[in-house]
Amino acid sequence: MATTSSGPAPESWREWLASEQIERSLIFSERIRRAKRMQYPSEIEPELLRFLDSANSLIRQQLEELKSDPGFADLPDREAETQLLRFSILYTHLCFAAALVEGASQTQAVAELAAPLKRTLVPVLGTANLLLHPLPEINYSFLDLGELLNSVVNEMGLTQDALPRDLYAVGFPSLQEEWSLMHCIIGHELGHALYKRFRMVDKIGPLIRIDEAKINDLVGSIHRDVWGYEADAHAPVESQAQLPLGSVQLRAATYKAVSRVLEYWIEEICSDGIGLHLFGPAFLLSAISFLANTRGLDYCSDDHPPARMRFRILFSLLRLRMPVGQSKNGPWSSYQPVLGQHVAAFLDTWESLVNAADVGFSNPYHAIAGSAILAVYPRMCARLQKLISQSLQYDIRQHVGDIEHLERDILLSIPPNEVRGGDGMRPAALASIFNAGWRAYLGGVQRLAKENGWSAWEAKAKLNQWVAKGIELAEVQTRWGEVQ
């Protein structure tokens, strides 16, 4: 008679899934172990890896306890599935954060920006931890990484001090990592953090009124186009009964859609304003270079207003930062002593282009939202000017001498890291380095190319390298001065 060997009973589907989750945690542990061997530009990346490691260990412990719990086998299928999928969601957050940290290990050209940017924000936020990471697309991004990972902290019962405070991830286009001057755009991404921290929507939002007549016209046109008659009390009763949405509901849905667009657009515009206050004209120059080369002037989406409108508002904000006594709408060449000849000429050219046509919009919802903003944007600019903390406002009028000194260094192939102070040389401000770099970029590339036998592209690449080195050396000098 044949005999069969007795072995362990096969795992149930829920035990098998729990085992797979445990395997996932072991794979993640190995990933973190490898990541810890990498070199990172600041202390925040290793600190975040320690958090991810401890969270992973706690998840694995809970999975093992769940799998061995006799009560787990008795749970209804749906409840058992929910228990297991909870861990999958947590791993989605942990893996995303790990990928950002791993990317940060490859960003040496941008890494030197993290410390001076953090120093800029600390007087306002109290703490600020920045993780700069490359993106596979030509774009910049902002993520409140601390807010995302707090869901892991709360779900796993970790203490709040397990996670670095005020943790923000800022993405930049990997293709242009070494194009230092473009990274003034990061000022906009940091603007998102400040916009939310200070609830600027509560101060800017009340200035904007949606045009009720435009809403009514849009609702009426929808009724005409879709159902063939005006949305009014005289519509046939039998037709009204067939409508998926009555005119009241359709109007409410339209108003909600426009309000949602406004919510996103106001944040983007205010973040632009914060970037301009952080870096002065250099931010506007970077915004023009980036946005005009990425999308058309009138491209917009539900979450981003058209560049033409953003530029108009930025030009208005910059004029508020210029010397008094000049015409509010005069040419930028009238500010040449402050801006420099080539920057002023560049701004004149682009403002003429921006104002050569009305702002275009993608659909009627965007048009209603955009017209509401354009109707009050001078008041928005004045309000924003008052809201932004003085400690964040870089006033180019007070740094003209520094910028001219740094520009001369760049054109002599010297990293622009220090300027003359009362007691000798002192580290240059980050915003001054950016503004000097843009002045040299717009006015000195041909000279650099001719003097060194380079192509224009080679001269621009070298100039960006010197700017990056200037930022690095200025940070070294600043830290050295802090320990003296």
Shape: globular
Q: How many individual β-strands?
A: 5
Largest sheet: 3 strands, mixed
Proportion in β-strands: 5-15%
**Helix coverage percent:** 55-70%
**Low-pLDDT residue intervals, each spanning 5 or more residues:** 233-241
Q: H/E series, N to C?
A: HHHHHHEEHEHHHHHHHHHHHHEEHHH
What's the structural domain tally? 3
Protein traits:
484 residues, 3 domains, 3-stranded mixed β-sheet, 5% strand
Write up this protein:
It contains 22 helices and 5 strands. The protein is mainly alpha-helical and 484 residues long. It has 3 domains: 13-178; 202-394, no CATH class; 399-483. It has a 3-stranded mixed beta sheet with strand order 1-3-2. A hairpin with a 2-residue loop joins strand 4 (418-421) and strand 5 (424-427). Helix 16 packs across helix 20 (430-443) and helix 20 (430-443) packs antiparallel against helix 22 (456-483). It starts with 12 loop residues before the first helix and ends with a helix.
